[in-house]
C-alpha cells in the first residue's frame, strides 16, 4: 500500500488505501480480517450441523494445517464443545483421543514453529492421521491432499475444505461414493475474501465497522450462499461442488443475458 500511495498525488492518497486489503486495523484494515477464513468455515460447519440434526457439542474433528485458517477454525469451534483429536502440519502429525487444546497448541506452535513434539499429544504417521475416526475433517493447508490414495482412508461424516483445492477429482468421486458430505472450498473458505471486500468497502466509504457488524455481515453472506448451493444440489440432483459452480455460473449467465451479450 505504501508503495502504491507513494506514486499518487498527495491529495489522492487518502482515497486510495482500498487498493490493498488485509492491512492492520491501525492502517485501515478491517476488524475480524485475521479470523475471517476460519470463521467462515465454522459458520458453515455450524449450519451443516443444524441441517443434519447433529450436535457439535459431542463432535470430534481433526485438521490438516495449523496456520491462520486452521488455528482460527479450531479456536472458533472450541466454544461449541467439539473435540480436536488430531492435527497435522509441515512438521508432523499429532494425535490425542482425549482432545487437544487449540489455545495451548497455538502457544506451542508460535514458540516451536510446528505441532511436532507437542507434549499433550502423541506423534503419528500420515496413514494413521488421515485415517483418524472422527465426525469432521478440515483440510486447511495444501491442495491435492484427498486423493484416490487417501480418500479411502477417511472415516468421517463431513469434509469442510478450509484450503484451496485440497480434494482432487478422484478424491471427490470416492467421498461421494462413501457418502461423506462435502463443503467445497469455493463455498467453505470464502470468508477471507468476503471480509477483504468489507475492508475495501469501508475504505471507499471512509467507515470503520466494529467486529460485531463484520461478523454479522459475514455470517449472513456465508449462510445465504450455503442455502443457494444446497438448493442447487437438490434441484439438479448433484454434489455440492458442482452445485456451487452452477450457482456461480448462473449468476454470470443472468448478467450476460441482461446486458444482451447472450441471445
How are the SSEs ordered, and which strands pair?
Elements: H1 2-6, H2 10-13, H3 36-51, E1 60-64, H4 68-77, E2 83-89, E3 92-95, H5 102-112, E4 122-124, H6 126-130, E5 136-139, E6 158-160, H7 169-178, E7 181-183, H8 185-188, H9 191-205, H10 211-235, H11 240-258
Parallel strand pairs: 1-2, 1-5, 5-6, 6-7
Antiparallel strand pairs: 2-3, 3-4
Structure description:
With 263 residues, the chain is an alpha/beta fold. It has a domain at 36-188: 3-Layer(aba) Sandwich (Rossmann fold), CATH 3.40.50.720. Helix content is 47%, strand content 11%. It contains eleven helices and seven strands. The protein has helices at 2-6, 10-13, 36-51, 68-77, 102-112, 126-130, 169-178, 185-188, 191-205, 211-235, 240-258; strands spanning 60-64, 83-89, 92-95, 122-124, 136-139, 158-160, 181-183. The longest helix is centred in the last third of the chain and has 25 residues, at 211-235. 40% of the residues are buried. The model has no long low-confidence stretch (mean pLDDT 94).
Would you kindly provide a brief summary of this structure?
The chain is an alpha/beta fold. Helices cover 47% and strands 11% of the residues. Strands 4-3-2-1-5-6-7 form a seven-stranded mixed sheet.
Keywords for this entry:
263 residues, alpha/beta, Rossmann fold
Proper CATH architecture of one domain: 3-Layer(aba) Sandwich
Biggest beta sheet attributes:
7 strands, mixed
Shape: globular
**What gyration radius follows from the Cα positions, in whole Å?**
20 Å
Helix content: 40-55%
Annotation, overall tally of beta strands:
7
Amino acid at each position: 500500500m505504501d508503495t502504491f500511495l507513494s506514486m499518487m498525488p498527495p491529495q489522492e492518497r487518502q482515497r486510495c488505501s482500498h487498493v490493498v486489503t488485509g492491512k492492520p486495523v491501525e492502517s485501515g484494515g478491517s476488524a475480524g480480517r485475521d479470523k475471517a477464513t476460519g470463521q467462515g468455515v465454522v459458520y458453515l460447519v455450524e449450519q451443516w450441523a443444524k441441517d443434519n440434526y447433529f450436535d457439535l457439542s459431542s463432535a470430534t474433528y481433526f485438521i490438516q494445517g495449523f496456520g491462520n485458517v486452521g488455528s482460527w477454525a479450531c479456536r472458533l469451534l472450541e466454544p461449541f464443545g467439539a473435540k480436536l483429536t488430531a492435527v497435522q502440519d509441515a512438521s508432523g502429525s499429532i494425535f490425542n483421543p482425549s482432545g487437544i487444546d487449540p489455545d495451548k497448541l497455538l502457544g506451542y506452535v508460535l514458540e516451536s514453529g510446528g505441532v511436532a513434539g507437542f507434549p499433550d499429544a502423541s506423534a503419528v504417521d500420515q496413514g494413521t492421521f488421515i485415517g483418524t475416526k472422527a465426525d469432521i475433517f478440515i483440510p486447511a493447508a495444501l491442495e491435492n491432499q484427498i486423493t484416490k490414495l487417501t480418500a479411502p482412508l477417511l472415516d468421517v461424516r463431513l469434509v469442510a475444505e478450509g484450503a484451496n483445492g485440497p480434494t482432487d477429482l478422484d478424491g471427490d468421486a470416492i467421498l461421494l461414493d462413501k457418502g461423506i458430505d462435502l463443503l467445497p472450498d469455493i463455498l467453505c473458505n470464502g470468508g477471507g475474501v468476503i471480509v477483504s471486500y468489507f475492508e475495501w468497502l469501508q475504505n471507499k466509504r471512509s467507515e470503520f465497522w466494529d467486529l460485531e457488524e463484520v461478523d454479522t455481515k459475514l455470517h449472513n453472506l456465508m449462510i445465504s450462499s450455503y442455502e443457494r448451493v444446497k438448493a442447487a444440489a437438490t434441484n439438479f440432483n448433484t454434489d455440492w461442488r458442482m452445485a456451487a459452480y452452477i450457482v456461480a455460473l448462473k449468476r454470470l449467465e443472468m448478467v450476460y443475458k441482461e446486458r444482451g451479450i447472450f441471445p
